[in-house]
Specification:
Helix content: 40-55%
Distance between the termini: 63 Å
Shape: rod-shaped
Structural class: alpha+beta
CATH class of one domain: Alpha Beta
């Protein structure tokens, strides 16, 4: 039996990438502001990375901000949008994203690998402009892709690198595999699973039982009031 996923299951994995991104931007560059109390007065501050680490209120604010945006994105998605997103995820494969929208460059590898490792440009860097990528993926994936740790603000692209191999072609394929993994993991984190008929029936029964209990409580309360009025009249 597969356990049901909670809202936290959808929020926590991409949350860490979001927080890492804000730390990397240093907050000021991302125009993030939060309200705090100082000497009994309210001031609007722009926190820095050190503020985030030193003041847990900044962390709480970011978590709240992220969760609110993510919940709003899911709530705005219609049943048709979610169904289309699930269908897209089911058909996603390593070649779903056309390679002509991607940019490949090479540089010297910095890792171990023999005498030619620093002489040959074997390290591959894959850039995928969001302007070209977002129209190809479900709308519900757009916010988490922008908050991904692979997203480069300056170029507005996903930037993926590989230097596992000494061969350029192999590292290029590794980059495309990583892109596929990023899209799949992001989609699984944000797209809720389809509610089964069993779950729908259980929710319906719970609502029905709750409604019956509410009506029963109202009748009991009304009966008590009537009995009190009747007792007063007898006196």
């Amino acid at each position: 039996m597969v356990s049901e996923r909670t809202p936290e299951d959808y929020l926590l994995p991409p949350l860490f990438g979001y927080l890492r991104k804000q730390l990397r931007l240093g907050f000021a560059e991302s125009s993030i502001q939060y309200l705090t109390l100082h000497n009994q007065t309210e001031r609007l501050l722009v926190p820095t990375s050190s503020d985030f680490l030193d003041d847990p209120r900044a962390c709480y604010w970011l978590v709240w901000r992220f969760a609110s945006r993510r919940a709003a994105a899911i709530n705005r998605a219609s049943d048709e949008d979610l169904a289309a997103a699930r269908e897209w995820l089911a058909s996603l494969h390593s070649k779903s994203i056309p390679r002509h929208i991607c940019e490949i460059s090479f540089s010297r590898s910095s890792g171990p690998g023999g005498q030619n490792v620093n002489k040959v440009n074997s390290k591959a860097t894959l850039k995928v402009p969001l302007q070209s990528l977002l129209p190809l993926v479900p709308t519900i994936l757009h916010p988490p892709l922008r908050s991904s740790r692979y997203f480069a603000e300056r170029t507005q692209s996903l930037v993926i690198q590989s230097e596992e191999s000494r061969k350029q072609a192999t590292n290029v394929e590794y980059c495309y595999e990583k892109l596929h993994q990023i899209l799949r993991s992001t989609a699984k984190d944000i797209i809720p699973g389809e509610t089964s008929q069993e779950q729908k029936d259980r929710v319906h029964k719970l609502k029905k039982a709750e409604n019956e209990a509410r009506i029963k409580a109202k009748k009991l309360h009304s009966s008590k009031k009537s009995s009190r009025r009747g007792g007063t009249n007898d006196e």
